[in-house]
Model the fold of this input.
Amino acid sequence: MWIAVCKVDDVPGDGGACIKWGEKHIALFNVTSRDDWYAMDNRCPHDGQTVLARGIVGDAGGSPKVACPLHKNSFCLKDGRHLGGQDDWRLTTYPVKVEGGQVFIELPEEKHRGAS
Ligand code: FES
Done:
């Protein structure tokens, strides 16, 4: 189910924002250098902090990535895998689309959006 989460202008270029969805915190990224958007769980699996939306967006071998702002573990924005080879740290990713200046994330139907 596609959920309107914010306006394009609400998210800084090559930066992120946190979207609350039920118990989940989703990290939404506006990767202007690639003209694309990505969404993944905001909770870093290294020590469980919900900080990835404040991470540093970059590139790893031609793929977009985010580096956690706390200890710099990096994750692929396309598929959520840990770029240091820690296979059990894979993050859930979500499809994103933009229509008429509005950003939508495809999220599981059973969740309910909380205040952000
Ligand atoms: S909390 Fe993200 S790398 Fe440590």
Observations:
- Residues 44, 46-47, 49, 68, 70-71, 73 surround FE2/S2 (inorganic) cluster (CB under 6 Å).
